[in-house]
Amino acid sequence: MPELPEVETIKRELEKKLLDKKIIGLKVNNPKVIKEPAPSEFKNQIINEKIKKITRRGKLLIIELKKDKFLIIHLRITGWLRYGKEETKARVLFKLSDGNFLNYMDSRLLGHLRLREAYKDLNFLKKLGPEIFELTAKQFKQMLKQKKGNIKALIMNQSFIAGVGNIYAQEALFLAKIDPRRTAPSLTVKEKDKLYKELKAVLAEAIEYRGSSVDSYRNLEGQAGGMEKRLKVYGKKNQPCPTCKKLLKKTTIAGRGTCFCPNCQK
Ligand SMILES: [Zn+2]
Question: How far is the centre of ligand 1, averaged over its atoms, from the C-alpha of 194 (Å)?
Fold first, then answer.
């Protein structure tokens, strides 16, 4: 599932490829991913529109066509975008004025495409918390103060902070030397500061290396991200800890597999 760095990588690539180009055709191979309006209306409304701006909110991509028209792409679990030639496996294909296609791929059909006059009123967007980059350490600590429950589940909760999923939550907790089984109120001020710093650092590093390709995620040109090789604990059960060399353990937290080092993470 793409997290903030993967979606940010796609957003930056889309800016380079798509800005000021027109959508001159639309082919719908599977209408299930088009959530609104109805596919025929979706097509009528999008043809001949120029791509003016691309933004990201949490894990959501927003392509601004004009002041009151936005294409909202929610990749969710297996959705991704590919720019270039026509892809036979694409669910929806946008033909562009430069002769290329923007292919919306989604093996499990779980993503959503929407064409709307506004996007800020979407319920799941209203529920999104701030991104860690928008917060100061003081604000982050203030937000943590009011929370109970498990710390890893909390930083993955999109209404608490947006954009962090199962990969970067594990990585940040390892870097901050915090056991993922702990509760939010048990963290010391020093640990909260460290977690804030490491969350920011790991997301920034992952953006720099253009994301992690641990599942279906690929960049716009179909290449794997470079962050996967830099991950310290994610998916590394029974492998030596990069710090102390003892074997990493795996547990389940809020239904998600979680690797950690019981020796380094206290
Ligand atoms: Zn260790």
Answer: 17
Distance in Å, CA 102 to ligand 1 centroid: 43
Upper half-sphere CA count for residue 15 (Cβ side, 13 Å): 10
175 CA to centre of ligand 1 in angstroms: 10
DSSP string, 173-240: HHHTT--TTSBGGG--HHHHHHHHHHHHHHHHHHHHTT---SSS---TTSPPPSSGGG-SSTT-TTSB
Q: Which residues are the active-site residues? A: 2-3, 59, 256
Q: What is the pLDDT of residue 219?
A: 84
Q: Could you report the per-residue pLDDT of 40-52, keeping only the tens digit for each?
A: 999 999 999 999 9
pLDDT of residue 214: 76
Question: Quick one: pLDDT at residue 26?
Answer: 97
3-state secondary structure at position 128: coil
Q: How far is the CA of 246 from the centre of ligand 1 (A)?
A: 6
93 pLDDT higher than 90: yes
Flag whether pLDDT at 194 surpasses 90.
yes
Domains in the chain: ranges and CATH: 4-126 (3.20.190.10), 132-260 (1.10.8.50)
